[in-house]
Specification:
The complex is a heterodimer of chains A (313) and B (435). Chain A has 313 residues and is α+β, with helices and mostly antiparallel strands. Chain A is 25% helix and 16% strand. Chain A has helices spanning 8-24, 75-80, 101-109, 146-150, 176-180, 197-200, 224-229, 234-238, 263-269, 300-312, and strands at 46-50, 56-60, 87-92, 120-124, 133-137, 156-158, 164-166, 187-188, 217-218, 244-248, 253-255, 260-262, 285-288. Chain B is globular and about 70 Å long. Classes of the chains: A alpha+beta (313), B mainly alpha (435).
Chain lengths: 313, 435
Amino acid sequence: MNTNDSSRRDFIVTGLLAGATLTGCSSRHNPFDNEANTMIRPSGKMVKLLSVNGEVIEVDEAFLKPVPDLPPVSNTEARIGIPGKKFVMVIDLSRCKSVKACQTACNHAHDLNPGENWIKVYPMQDAEHTAPYWEPTTCMHCDEPPCVKVCPVDATFKREDGIVLIDSDRCIGCRFCMAACPYSTRVFNWEAPQLPKEIAEKPYSCETSVPQKIGTVGKCDFCADMTRKGELPHCVSACPNGVFFFGDMVEDTVTNGAETFRFSDLIRDKAGYRLMEDLGTKPSVYYLPPVNRNFPFENKDDQQEEKKEKIKS
Amino acid sequence: MEILARQKIISDLLPKKFGWKGKIWVAVLILICMIGIFAYIRQLSSGLIVTSMRDYASWGIYISNFVFFVAISLVGSLITAVLRLTNVHWSTPLTRIAEIIAVSAITFASIIIIVDMGRPDRFYNLFLHGRLQSPIIWDVIVITTYFFISLLLLYFPLLPDFNIMLQAKKEAGNRFNKMYAFLGSFWKNTPKQKKISRRSINILSITIIPVAFAIHTVTSWLFATTYRPGWDSTNFGAYFISGAFLVGAGAVLVAMYVFRRAYELEKYITIDNFDRMGKIVVMLALVYLYFNVNEFLVPAFKMKKTDADHLLGLFTGEYSGVFWFAISTSMFLPILILINRKGRKPFPAFIAGTLVVVGSWFKRYLIVTPTLLHPFLPMHDVPESYRHYFPSWEEWAIAAGSLAGMVLIITIFARIFPIIPIQETIEETEKHEKV
């Protein structure tokens, strides 16, 4: 996380740590005596902090130690979610031409291994004489999530704000959730993720889903870290055609960054629907049908894949 | 059974040292296990990438092997409990064979499920964070329960035999006396002890039946609680149980033949035993066939879009070879062989039993993998290798190692303990004499 735009929370946490050191130390071990702080010179800039006793104290800025590897939120917090929110996504199939910028952005943001995709863009054709269309899929963040039902260790869980996340520090890798998910959205780390050292050593956060760990399951997390910051998921902001809308059902708004709609109006006017409604999983991802399309359906993908296979063999 | 003197029975049934054949057999089994362990070490160091499992075929032969082990272990409850409670006496010489098959199979079921885990190092999470709503936790609970009941059902009838073996220790010249003394020296054969033992065995025989049904029903629910075509079936519990009794009974036929030959037990495991077990296998095969008809023909009549790919793949598509092989070896051929009186002679019955066991192993594979390769959304945006599944050598080695391990436990058990219950055989014979 960028320390310059260091969020208020980080600041408070660091402050609390400093406060704890202050109150926790006896006079014998004064952290502010010269011996303990030979390396640190007071900058003269004083910062007001709240101590654990509830007193406002002033500390020289130089004494505040940055805590680089502190997880953005605690595991308990990440499991509860953001109160009062119900996140929802709308995918407009009439705008998708399989640019896959969503996929690239997602793979990059979550440092996925090559070949792993949390977002898949399917060339769909429901029957012989019906129209083909592109269907991007994320995790559906179901309200009746079959994966959560079957998880034996509560490693995948449903939050109050509707997001389904994975705790990769707890997952035992039984892959029952993958069998249970009808949307084939879950991806397994069959081998150790190829990560730069500084990312691999980060403590895992359920909200960033980074770093992925060998022998555990990963999947789309609705970019829970971004939504906590009030920003859009990476796929939404990466899509050049504005296919993805993201928002909060309680506020009844969804946006793709450029356009903002009232969620209920959008779904009503464009006849939004959800995938595999008959299974009763109640997804949080809605689709707008591929009518009045912006682009014709051209499956360059297949040709490219064929070429790649030829090269490989 | 011809009337035998007590001393003759004891000397016939005491465990015997391995001959050269036995030694080679054990060496081969240990070798296969070692190769399996080597493959597992490779898997531990590089992760499940050494297998051929990928995101679509996310379960492979480890899981089908697990289902196979759980299935075969059900025979313990069939022979020891169901037949014991219905006062069937001809099965007495088979009870210990059935029970050791059950114990060793359920042990390797637990081992193979740990092998399948991506993070076996976090196994303890099942106890720290276990959630009762997951069928996996149900499986952990019932399998543990079944293991301990089976172990007790193996142990209690052994108690009087320990006594006999300790008395005969000089004649037998047995190195295992210390172990026998540790396990059974408190047994003095008093009427009170006998009464307690009989009652305990009765109680265990009754409790093991629902637990046995539970282990395999819950195992079927690992699949049936999902939405996938081929698994989403209300028939699954009964289908699994009937198949389990069949493969277990087939395994008993095989074990009966092998022990009879290896330990010269012709007087104890009789032609009559084969005849009756053969009839049971025919009945069980017919029951399993009935559930197969339900499982495949009813959805095939409708050919729902999601089911159609899966079913056609089995009937005429890429799995048809294995499918028809499994159906004919696990049901049709054994029925054809065993329905004749001549087919129920020891050797043909042994062949039929082998066919059942082999066919059932492949049947389990067909239950697990083809379904996973027919997901609701087409397979897409994955590397080409994700679209097919053929087990890697590591998977074969580990699966073979686990099967060899199960047979090894049975072999070593028969080396240390009498594989035919001595005391019960004596009692049966004495009853016979009185009549």
